Amino acid sequence: MATFLYRIGRWAFRRRRLVGGLWLGALVLALAAAAMAPAGEEEDLSMPGTESQKAFDLLDERFPESNSQGAEARLVFQAPDGQRVTARENKAAVQDTLGSLDGGDQVASTTDPYESGAVSEDGTIAYSTITYTEGAVDLTESTKSALEDAANQARDAGLTVEIGGSALDVEEEPGGTTELIGVAVAAVVLVLALGSLVAAGLSLLTALLGVAIAFGLVSALAVPLGLTSTVAILALMLGLAVGIDYALFITSRFRDECAQGSEPEEAAGRAVGTAGSAVVFAGATVFIALVGLGVVGIPELTKMGMGGAGAVALAVLVALTLVPALFGLFGRRVLPRGVRKAAGAPRRDAGNYATGHGETAGDRHPIAAKPAKGMGSRWARFVLRRPVAVLMVAGLGLGAVAVPALSLELGLPGDESKSVETTQRRAYDLLSEGFGPGFNGPLTVVVDASKSADTRAATNQVVKTLRGVDGVASVGDPALSRTKDTAVLTAVPKTAPNSGETKDLVHAIRGAVSGVEADTGAGILVTGTTAMNIDISEAMSDALIPYLTVVIGLAVLLLLVVFRSVLVPVKAALGFLLSVGAAFGVLVAVFQWGWAADLLGIEQTGPVMSLMPILIIGIVFGLAMDYEVFLLTRMREAHVHGASPGEAIVSGFRHSGRVVAAAAIIMISVFAGFVGMSSPTIQTMGVGLAAAVLFDAFVVRMAIVPAVLALLGHRAWWLPRILDRVLPNVDIEGEALTRHVPASATVPDAAVAPLPAGRHRG
Fold first, then answer.
1. What is the per-residue pLDDT for 695?
2. Distance between CA 460 and CA 523 in Å, rounded?
3. What is the structure's pLDDT at 27?
4. Which parts of 483-522 fold into alpha helices (H)?
């Protein structure tokens, strides 16, 4: 693979204008497609195979007239202190408000709270439901303004009015202040790490181009594939983070090659052949982990995985082609000014590293022969002197941070998780106050009596059973389908939607109605948003361990192939578990317990979003392997060329430690930049991923990995002979370049293929 990528790098370097033009054309096409595509709808989560989803599907079949795709708004009215909303003047204000909406543009219907019984027992709170002909994303600004104007009209009359429902929902758009701060931090880190504005700008520019193409494609495919704004934001988040990192790794290797005396074209080829091999492998691990999210069976999670995987694949392609093309454009200006001045004389020994002829171990691998300098080397030597102490402190520290994860509770956010500054949250609170906490999370019970002798008798028995279940506040009157073989009714819990008591209630109802099913032959299903959220959360919990097992197994297998070692993959998998456990501990502490929630702008605590654990496992697995590969590749490279185990560790840190640290800081900055968004999903993702990268890069890879390798010594690179014969040699270290690729090797312009010996362009 190294030889093939070496040729791609040289070809892209020479054909820089062609490569740049192709990527620019791809950007224009993607943005044009996004501009012409209609906006996608925000879809509710679904979980095929669960009881709640089966009930939803049955309702769609038996009650097609109620399957409205239009948005809904709920106007909640509260009378002034000491008054009732049923008082004459307040009732007149409510009806005038609703009258201003009735028959308005895009309004399908409005309900009168006094006729529908939507008034609280104490008479202080009432609500009206407004149904629209279009979905939330298709409501015009004039329609939304009319709704807000109606609410203001009632407020002018002295009532407290808040608006709930989906009508005011907006798609989360990237580009806020915190995201820009994250990008700015990434730019500063690039400049400090590379010592060159040109090199930093190159890495940032290529990453932004890849992200823009990915974002444009997701937007263009939103309607045909049903992609939501969360998919687009995840693609943006991942594409930006890995895009900058991958460009940084290749740029850093290019600078090393130039500093050792290679001509820019040769340096570009070698950078893509070595660091590019690591980029391909690292990107492949992220891609596989994200695509693997599809096995969980949740369509939204599958779409998020595919969107993120596509962004990562684009980042890899950009790093392998556009980055070396820009090397051809900027040449040695990518190097710091001081290095450029000192680079006049080649520093490679004759015959060294490029030809592979007549070297000693030190000559063949200048990296291993050079004295150790810099903070990375000093840290590596410190760990080599005290491996047990470092391992104990780092391992116990991560274990302590992971302890809160034992209290992990999963759920899905609703209006209750929004800021108290939003009208949706205040409407939620008013409805809870007036009608009980369970009013915002009613349960829908579907009675399929198609195989029952008497639909009404079966339904009446269900109603009687529900009213006898502890925790049910009320049971509504059943409604029959047109064919009279299906009934649907509503049961309101006494407790809030996300409470543990409501979860227990759903299970209690399902257990209680099983006797009715046996007696009547009817099928009875419990659904509704609350039941669906409970089913999805439980499915996520059940899938967590199997998915984690698959991911860890994949990690061990891939690292076994790459590093040709048994113990290195096992160590990497255990370190990954520590990183993930600590990240989950942070999520529980912040989002469930409220630690530092105010500092992060998180106003409401509650269960961690049920999709997050599996999503974070998939993403962090790939990112953890990124740092493992980039750090250990240089260690194995030095070890293969004759360095002792200790010196191989020092060599890895000297050449990759600073770059890996910079890449991790960049990724943390990008992820943390999304914490400021209002979406609980994005906030949870930002905090979880930033914490996971922090722990994995700086504790696991920088402390635990060298400590374990120091303790293992030569055993770290042991591989049984049978595996050595069976496993393919992917040559991620670029060993083949020293044996088979002469300095004059190049690539034909028409295709990436070997050239006749002797053809070369400087």
1. 93
2. 14
3. 93
4. 500-512, 514-520
**Residues of the chain whose pLDDT is less than 50?**
345-372, 741-762
Say what the pLDDT of residue 65 is: 66
Alpha carbon distance, N-terminus to C-terminus of the chain: 24
Structure tokens at 743: 């300095």
Per DSSP, 119 falls in state B
pLDDT tens per residue, range 184-203: 888 888 888 777 788 888 88
Residue listed under structure tokens 């520590």: 578
Element housing 472 (H / E):
strand 472-475
Which pLDDT score, from 0 to 100, does residue 117 have? 85
Sorted by where each starts, the structural domains of the chain and their CATH numbers stand as 1-36+176-339 (1.20.1640.10), 72-165 (3.30.70), 375-414+544-736 (1.20.1640.10), 442-527 (3.30.70.100)
- The residues near 621 (Cβ < 8 Å, ≥ 6 apart) are 285, 286, 289, 551, 554, 555, 576
CA distances (Å), origin 744, targets 270, 709, 741? 12, 38, 8
The residues near 431 (Cβ < 8 Å, ≥ 6 apart) are 74, 76, 125, 127, 164, 439, 440
- What's the CA gap between 639 and 649, in Å, rounded? 9
Query: What confidence score (pLDDT) does residue 664 get?
Result: 86
Calpha distance 219→232 (Å, rounded): 7
Q: Is 302 exposed, middle or buried (0-12, 13-18, 19+ CB in 10 A)?
A: middle
Q: Which 8-state DSSP code applies to residue 354? A: T
- Is residue 746 within 8 A of residue 10, CB to CB? The reply is yes
Distance CA 563, CA 553 (A): 15
Structure tokens at 374: 């810099």
Residue 673: what are its φ and ψ, rounded to 5°? -65, -20
- Angle (deg, nearest 10), helices 197-220 and 177-194: 140
Torsion, Cα of 210, 211, 217, 219 (10° steps): -170
pLDDT of residue 364: 37
Tally Cβ neighbours within 10 Å of residue 519: 12
Give the Cα separation of 170 and 141 in Å (integer): 11
d(CA 260, CA 258): 5
- Structure pTM? 0.78
Residue 602 Cα distances to 568, 590, 592, 606, angstroms:
39, 8, 11, 11
CA dihedral 740, 744, 748, 751 (to 10 degrees): 30
* Residue 638 and residue 589 in contact, taking contact as beta carbons nearer than 8 Å: no
CA distance 489 to 478: 4
Tell the burial category of 200 from Cβ atoms under 10 Å away from its Cβ (0-12, 13-18, 19+): buried
| CB neighbour list of residue 322: distance below 8 Å, 6 or more residues apart | 12, 19, 20, 23, 206, 209
At 34, list the tokens.
Answer: 């996004």
3-state secondary structure of 166: coil
Give 262's contacts (C-beta < 8 A, 6+ positions apart). 270, 348, 354
Instruction: Compute the distance between CA of residue 89 and CA of residue 98 in angstroms, rounded to an integer.
Output: 14
Give the CB-side neighbour count of residue 74, counting CA atoms within 13 A.
20
- Which tokens sit at 591? 């989002």
